[in-house]
């Protein structure tokens, strides 16, 4: 699914009005009625005090439409117009008139602090002050109203965007932004809903299809995508009946050290559970029995050293090599990676200490084969590319890095971002239970396995990240977030792949 900018959404709005031969107020009615339906579905006519805060633009217009429907369905509603400007939009005005026709309790005008209502923790707040039209930070008494709403801890539902949140930049440090519990957003997700610095403002997210012009949405260009089931199903390669293990690649996983053999064991388990034909490990001698006992399906080659890697088998032929987990960053391990980069022509996946070694030896970067996949968490990324000012700056730095070194970056997080040159793929499977030791080692195994099975590295990364998250979702259904450990994610990979084909399963929540 494409992620669109505010400009593209406004354009979609205009084109839909033209092509569908409707007025903009009819489009507003359609969009806001869908918001009402979602609220009504959940509240089921409960006698909860609902306070709706409307701006004076079209986001406020949406709020007025929602208010009208709620009142007509017998809800206990108080409407406030947050009068931050005199430039009321036409569609706001026409819905203002329509609202006045159906109730004697006309909207209360807020022109300053003296007009602020009491907000109770038990109220249900609807935030329809600003949407995608926000073009500067919220200031003065409007900012104080936002803070009052946040401090009330009342359940807050934002229409389209939490007010104060820009769709294309990070709010300043003390900016006034609604901290929504739930956001119902129109047509396409916005990038800020997935960035670590801003995702919490949106709370639980639901995208509502308001029927904007399909042709425009299909044709509009975007380099940012939310990975959904349709995307990954299109990437998935079915196995042929007439095939054997040689058709599914030979993955070589190099890493581990004394006390950290579990990491490579997890990576190799995940690689095998994701369908690699053959899996070999290159490890220090001390890991031999651990691996042969823990994972009899894998083959083992040992380094001359007992406790850490020091070398790499120059003549080993693998379809893909994964390097780094548990490897340490000692001089001998640096030498092992250097040897690998000098001798191997296989596609590479680099994780963990492999990335730390590269960060300390930047000359290795130019030795990486084109389209190597690097899988940093934010700490490893910082060592690799330096500090960033905010999430948007970080994305720019990663895109520049990806272009300069011709590599794919899988930036791990609550929403993992896969960045390939200018393109960004945002993952939306997975859950907080996956924030556990070894989860990243499993992900490297999945991506490695898929590359070995002849997936393009970018497809392997996007698909791998998605099914890794799905596997975590399956594991947590059974075990709860706290109960999930990395081995569970590895073990459930096959179920996750099967799950892709269960058509009754909806996309995971954002
Ligand atoms: N395409 C769709 O998906 C649909 C969207 N709808 C809804 O419309 C809003 C966008 O409405 P818009 O009127 O463009 O903008 P806002 O309501 O977000 O803002 C109104 C005006 O507020 C001014 N502004 C901006 N920032 C500030 C600020 N910090 N302080 C005070 N005022 C501010 C700005 O006007 P200026 O001339 O003063 O700059 C805005 O224009 C969208 O989010 C949806 O909710 C449709 O209803 C359905 C289709
Ligand atoms: K809003």
UniProtKB/TrEMBL annotation:
Catalyzes the epimerization of the S- and R-forms of NAD(P)HX, a damaged form of NAD(P)H that is a result of enzymatic or heat-dependent hydration. This is a prerequisite for the S-specific NAD(P)H-hydrate dehydratase to allow the repair of both epimers of NAD(P)HX. Catalyzes the dehydration of the S-form of NAD(P)HX at the expense of ADP, which is converted to AMP. Together with NAD(P)HX epimerase, which catalyzes the epimerization of the S- and R-forms, the enzyme allows the repair of both epimers of NAD(P)HX, a damaged form of NAD(P)H that is a result of enzymatic or heat-dependent hydration. It catalyses: (6S)-NADPHX + ADP = AMP + phosphate + NADPH + H(+); (6S)-NADHX + ADP = AMP + phosphate + NADH + H(+); (6R)-NADHX = (6S)-NADHX; (6R)-NADPHX = (6S)-NADPHX. This is Bifunctional NAD(P)H-hydrate repair enzyme. Binds 1 potassium ion per subunit. Coiled coil: none annotated. AMP binds at residues 412-416, 440. It comes from the Bacteria. The lineage of its organism: Bacteria, Pseudomonadati, Bacteroidota, Flavobacteriia, Flavobacteriales. Keywords: ATP-binding, Isomerase, Lyase, Metal-binding, Multifunctional enzyme, NAD, NADP, Nucleotide-binding, Potassium. Homotetramer. One of its GO terms (biological process) is nicotinamide nucleotide metabolic process. Residues 228-500 form the YjeF C-terminal domain. PROSITE patterns: YJEF_C_2 (PS01050), YJEF_C_3 (PS51383), YJEF_N (PS51385). It comes from Christiangramia crocea. Pfam families: Carb_kinase (PF01256), YjeF_N (PF03853).
């Amino acid at each position: 699914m494409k992620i669109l900018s505010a400009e593209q959404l406004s354009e979609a709005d205009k084109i839909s009005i033209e092509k569908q031969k409707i007025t903009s107020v009819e489009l507003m009615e359609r969009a806001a009625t869908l918001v009402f339906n979602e609220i009504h579905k959940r509240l089921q006519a409960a006698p909860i005090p609902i306070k709706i805060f409307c701006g004076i633009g079209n986001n406020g217009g949406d709020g007025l439409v929602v208010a009208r429907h709620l009142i007509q369905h017998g809800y206990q509603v108080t409407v406030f117009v947050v009068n931050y400007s005199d430039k009321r939009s036409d569609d706001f005005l026409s819905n203002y008139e329509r609202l006045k026709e159906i109730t004697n309790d006309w909207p209360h005008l807020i022109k300053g602090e003296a007009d602020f209502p009491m907000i109770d923790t038990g109220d249900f707040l609807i935030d329809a002050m600003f949407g995608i039209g926000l073009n500067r930070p919220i200031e003065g008494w409007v900012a104080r109203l936002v803070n009052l709403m946040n401090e009330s801890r009342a359940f807050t539902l934002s229409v389209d965007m939490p007010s104060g949140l820009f769709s294309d930049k990070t709010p300043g440090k003390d900016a006034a932004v609604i901290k929504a519990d739930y956001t119902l957003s129109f047509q396409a997700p916005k990038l800020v809903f997935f960035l670590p610095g801003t995702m919490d403002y949106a709370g639980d997210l639901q995208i509502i299809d308001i029927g904007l012009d399909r042709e425009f949405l299909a044709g509009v260009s975007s380099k940012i995508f939310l990975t959904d089931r349709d995307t990954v199903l299109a990437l998935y390669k079915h196995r042929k009946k007439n095939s054997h293990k040689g058709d599914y690649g030979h993955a070589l996983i190099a890493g581990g050290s004394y006390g950290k053999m579990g990491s490579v064991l997890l990576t190799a388990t995940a690689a095998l559970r994701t369908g690699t034909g053959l899996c070999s490990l290159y490890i220090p001698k001390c890991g031999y029995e651990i691996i042969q006992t823990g994972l009899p399906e894998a083959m083992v080659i040992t380094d001359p050293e007992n406790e850490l890697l020091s070398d790499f088998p120059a003549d080993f032929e693998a379809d893909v090599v994964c390097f780094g987990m548990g490897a340490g960053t000692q001089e001998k391990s640096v030498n092992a990676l250097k040897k690998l980069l000098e001798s191997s022509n296989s596609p590479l996946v680099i994780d963990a200490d492999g990335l730390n070694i590269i960060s300390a030896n930047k000359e290795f970067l130019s030795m990486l084969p084109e389209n190597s996949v690097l899988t940093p968490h934010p700490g490893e990324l910082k060592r690799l590319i330096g500090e960033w000012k905010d999430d948007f700056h970080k994305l720019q730095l990663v895109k520049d890095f990806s272009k300069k070194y011709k590599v794919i970056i899988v930036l791990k997080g609550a929403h993992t971002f896969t960045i390939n040159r200018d393109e960004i793929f945002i993952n939306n499977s997975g859950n907080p239970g996956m924030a556990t030791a070894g989860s990243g080692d499993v992900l490297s195994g999945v991506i490695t396995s898929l590359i070995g099975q002849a997936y393009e590295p970018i497809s392997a990364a996007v698909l791998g990240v998605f099914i890794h998250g799905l596997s975590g979702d399956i594991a947590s259904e059974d075990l709860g977030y706290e109960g999930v450990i990395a081995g569970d994610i590895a073990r459930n990979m096959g179920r996750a792949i099967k799950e892709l084909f269960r058509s009754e399963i909806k996309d995971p929540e954002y």
